[in-house]
Structure formats: structure tokens, C-alpha cells
UniProtKB/TrEMBL annotation:
Pathway: Cofactor biosynthesis; tetrahydrofolate biosynthesis; 4-aminobenzoate from chorismate: step 2/2
Keyword Lyase applies: yes
Entry EC number(s): 4.1.3.38
Lineage: Bacteria, Pseudomonadati, Pseudomonadota, Gammaproteobacteria, Alteromonadales
Membership in a protein family: Belongs to the class-IV pyridoxal-phosphate-dependent aminotransferase family.
GO MF, one example: pyridoxal phosphate binding
Entry keyword set: Folate biosynthesis, Lyase, Pyridoxal phosphate
This protein's name: Aminodeoxychorismate lyase
Any one GO cellular component localisation term in the record: cytosol
Amino acid sequence: MQKIIIADDTSTISTRDRGLNYGDGFFTTAKIVAGEVEHWQHHKARLIECAERLGFSAIDFTELEQSIKKRIATLSLNVLKIVITRGEGGRGYALPTHSNLTILISVLDFPTHYSSLANTGISVNISPIKLAAQPLLAGLKTLNRLEQVLIKNAMAKQNCDDVIVLDHQNNVIEASAANIFAIANNTVFTPSLEQCGIKGVYLQSLCDKLAVEFKQVSVLELTQASAVFICNSLMGAVAVNRIEQHTFDVPQSQRLLNELLAKEAKC
């Protein structure tokens, strides 16, 4: 069973909802272009994986997709957010015997600053907040996002557009709300997400087009790369112009990525 709520000024959610009380849920955020959800199959796969790994009941995608299609049919450029919780029930942390999913669908304005960042590139510093390791949740976009709240709060005092977030072994993991990948010697690599971090939809779609190596990455290795990018499903891939004091040539970075994509498209 599931209950779909279309978010507006009159929407309500139970004070006993497990998503509200325990963060017992997950979400995805997608780009709406001309009445369609970009990379929908990857967003759908993300929701399915989250539900399976967290022990949720199966999502009725027929109903969900119909509700989304009706809501976004006339939109040209917006943001779709889908939040799924386990609903009400259970004693404390214990799971309910039968769960009734709550699905919240929100449509938001598209961020206006992404287009300018695509042209100028994005400056990043190193966040003082580090991610804890939890392989049971690694890769998933759950509702437990307090680390990201702390990261954004600390970032407000740093002179940069975004930050690189490390784990407690000082491995590079991700940006504040995006993945990181780099190009070196005409190969693409990205940080391993086996212990923490989120495997984003844009990164998944990039793996469909290019051979991407997942491995442990240090900050030094990033600064020695030919090009570094941050990416998510809304902004796409944006070249990094600076990591702390080390600078990159944004047009060259964009050219390297486009050349790799064009080469793979011909294969």
C-alpha cells in the first residue's frame, strides 16, 4: 500500500510518519525538461535499490509515474523531488508489521545559478566536516542528511562555490551535493563509494557513456589531474576551476570531456 501526496500549501503529513521521526526513508531529485523527467530510468533504479536495501515494500511505479506525468506535463524547466517514507507504525525504531508507504511529490523552481557556473567553472575548497563510514547505507540517498547540513553550514564561511568532502581516512568522497570525477591520461576516475557517499544519477548516466574507474582518491591526485568535474542530475557536469590554491583551465577541461564522449560515441 502507498499514499501519494502532491506537495502544495495545503499538504499535510502525519506527525507519526517514520520519515519525520527517524529519517526512515529516501529520496531523489530530478530535472524536468519539456514535461519529461530527465534520466528517469536511473532515478527509478535508485528508488528501487533504496527500497530493497532498506527493506521497504515494493513501490507501485504505475501509480507513481501517472501522478508525476499529470503534475509535470506543462512544465518546461523545473525540479522534481520524490520523497518516500515507510509511513506510520512500529514501536519506536522497530518496523511496522505492514508498512504503508508515504510518497511526497514536490515540484520546485530550477536553480538559476547553474548556467553561469557551467561557463565560469566552480571553485572548491576542502570541507572541515568529514563523512562517517556506514557501508550498509553507502551509495543511497536516504533522509539522513545531517552531515550535509553541517557541511553546508561550514561552507557558508568558506570562500568557494562548493566543497570537497573527505572521509575520516582523508579519501575524497564527493562534493556537498554532487559527485566528483576527474580525467587523467585520457581516463576517467571517481571516488569509491563503498563506505559512504551517494552514487548520483548523473554519475550513473555517465557510466553508460564512458568507462569510469571507481577507486580511492586523494586530494593530491585530484590536483594532479588534467580536469576535475562535479556533477549531479540538475547541473550536469561542471568543470572545477580551482581546488584551494590549485587552478584548472575550464575550457580545456570541457574540451577533454567532450572529446572523450565523442570518441566513445563513435565506438
